[in-house]
Structures are given as C-alpha cells and as structure tokens.
C-alpha cells in the first residue's frame, strides 16, 4: 500500500524510518499512553521494542502505518490496517500521540486527513476504531470526525489487570462523502 507524506501547518504525516527509534522511545514510553493501547504497545517502551517494531513495518502490505512528526521528531503514529476475506472493504484505524502534544487538536486533524486519504485513495468503504471504555479523548476525536458509536463490546478487553468494555466506532464512506459535500 502506498505510504504518503502529508504536510500540515504544525506537523507532518510520513512513513517511519529506521532512525526514528530514539524519538519513538522518547514519545511512546509513557504509562498513561500505554493504558489506552493494546499490549503490543508496551510500557516501558524500550529501544529494543522500537527497533523490533520498526523492523516489522516492511511486511505489512495491507496496512498504512505512518509517523506523526512534530518539531522534527516522530512523536506519534497512525495506522490503518486493512482487513481480509469478507471484511476486505474495512480498514481499522488506530493512533497515538506523545503526551507532550495532547489537547492541541492535532489528532482530530490527523484523523480528518487520514480518513480523507483512505476514502479517496484506497478501496475501503468502512473505517472503524476500537476504544477502551475510559478513553473519552479518543471517542471525542472520532466523534468530531463523524464516526458513530456502533456497539459496546462488554468486558472484551483485559488491560493492566482490569476487564474493560470496548467501544466500537465506525464511519462509512457514503456518510463521509455526504458530510464532506455538506461542508
Ligand atoms: C487520544 C489522543 C490520540 C488524542 O490526541 P489529541 O491530539 O490530544 O486530541 P485532540 O486535541 O485533537 O482532541 C481531544 C479531544 O478530547 C477532549 N478530551 C481530552 N480529555 C478528555 C476527557 N478526559 N474527557 C472528555 N474529553 C476529553 C479534548 O478536550 C478534545 O476535545 P475538544 O477539541 O472538543 O476540546 C491522545 O490523547 C493519545 O495519544 N492518547 C493515548 C493513546 C490513545 O488513546 N490512542 C487511541 C486508542 S483508541
């Protein structure tokens, strides 16, 4: 899948590079952040974790996995994961941003940009995201981008020793197109 570079006023979305490992650790190694992510995103987040993860990226042909660069450092990530089989018109979206930059509207804008990119440049007709029950900031980001809460998967998640509900958010291309036309 093509990996774009998209320039915005305060940040850039771009492919990851092997030399992002140090900034990846600096920004990803945060317990508050990890509590909202799947366990594949560990805490502590070590240099070995960063290198190992960066090494896997070449194999992910159905996915669009990009860095969010702020102040010349990879300070966040957004991934769109293409499903297969009968789900092949679905893309799952996931993202994180360095604690240093929370609350500035960056992720709301990143999701806006990537949703447009996905619906214009790929075959996906539906994007979805899975959010842990306590993650109100992420729900807000999705809702501001037109995603609707479609389901609550009760006690679906075991995170840090706690059973949590997972909220499923979805956005259909047809709804996104209507929303874009309405401005
Ligand atoms: C979720 C996350 C990506 C948001 O990034 P961000 O750039 O800070 O988001 P934005 O600033 O664009 O928007 C956040 C919105 O949530 C709101 N918000 C933040 N904390 C909140 C809370 N505890 N309760 C309710 N709303 C909250 C903000 O006020 C803002 O809404 P507003 O613009 O209407 O005021 C970031 O907090 C993060 O990386 N968290 C850890 C990883 C994660 O949760 N990833 C997503 C997994 S589904």
Would you write up a description of this structure?
The protein has 183 residues and is an alpha+beta fold. The protein has a single domain, classed as Gcn5-related N-acetyltransferase (GNAT) (Aminopeptidase, 3-Layer(aba) Sandwich). The chain is built from six helices and eight strands, in the order ββαααβββαβαββα. The chain has helices at 21-28, 31-34, 47-56, 106-121, 136-144, 173-182, and strands at 6-7, 12-15, 63-70, 73-82, 90-97, 126-132, 148-159, 162-172. The protein has an eight-stranded mixed β-sheet, with helices on both faces. Strand 4 (73-82) and strand 5 (90-97) form a beta hairpin. Helix 1 (21-28) crosses helix 3 (47-56). It is globular and about 45 Å long. The mean pLDDT is 97.
